[in-house]
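tokens incoming
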């Protein structure tokens, strides 16, 4: 191995560590958190509107009223995709090339309908709009679990000694388990046995509360990095479904 190759490995590792530690100080991290928080209510509205509109449009397609309902639904999906493209670019730093809609080049109602049905950009927008609910549920879960757990641990010194507060590992009764390994050897049996006993542990001193607070800092650091990574994935998904061409691969 060359000397330059040996020196590049620690440099790459230090770059990763630096990126992880600097995540809480990046505006893009909190922009991604805002994007995921907005995804939950928007995802519910998009999913209900799109599913109801497409279902009614297809169900009433044998009648004249079904066609305008379906056209209005797909038109709404396209309008939503334009707004979502701007939102992804503003909050996630996505690089999305606006698609060239085939319906703009169509002449007549029939050609317009064929252009909409055969346009991959329209179906990409439909896929994005329907997937927004999944993104919203996942984002709401991440924000609730990761950040609330980290925040509560971080604030342990503020409430650990409050009346009625219990901080730590609280079990209704001790857990006792025996682990044993027995190996037959001629007329004998040779074995090793361990007894594991887990009891409750409660924070009752300031040093213990400070230790829990440090654990909260670590939990928040992990949570913010997970949110940053989730934002990166959402940006790539937006580039894939809302743009024209392959998504760009990059890091923030």
């Amino acid at each position: 191995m060359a000397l330059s190759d040996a020196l590049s490995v620690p440099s790459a590792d230090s770059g990763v560590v630096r990126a992880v530690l600097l995540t809480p100080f990046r505006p893009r991290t909190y922009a991604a958190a805002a994007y995921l928080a907005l995804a939950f209510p928007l995802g519910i509205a998009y999913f209900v509107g799109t599913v109801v509109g497409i279902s009614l449009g297809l169900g009433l397609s044998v009648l004249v009223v079904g066609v305008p309902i379906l056209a209005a639904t797909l038109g709404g999906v396209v309008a939503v995709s334009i707004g979502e493209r701007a939102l992804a670019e503003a909050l996630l730093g996505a690089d999305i090339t606006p698609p060239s809609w085939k319906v703009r080049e169509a002449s007549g109602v029939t050609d317009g309908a064929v252009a909409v049905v055969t346009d991959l950009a329209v179906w990409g927008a439909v896929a994005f709009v329907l997937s927004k609910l999944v993104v919203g549920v996942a984002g709401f879960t991440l924000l609730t679990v990761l950040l609330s757990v980290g925040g509560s641990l971080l604030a342990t010194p503020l409430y650990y000694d409050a009346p009625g507060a219990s901080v730590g590992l609280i079990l209704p009764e001790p857990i006792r388990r025996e682990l044993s390994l027995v190996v037959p050897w001629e007329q004998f049996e040779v074995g090793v046995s361990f007894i594991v006993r887990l009891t409750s542990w409660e924070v009752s001193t300031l040093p213990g509360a400070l230790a829990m607070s440090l654990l909260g800092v670590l939990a928040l650091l992990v949570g913010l990095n997970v949110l940053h990574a989730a934002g990166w994935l959402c940006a790539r998904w937006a580039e894939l479904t809302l743009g024209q061409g392959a998504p760009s691969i990059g890091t923030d």
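note: The chain is about 65% helix and 10% strand.
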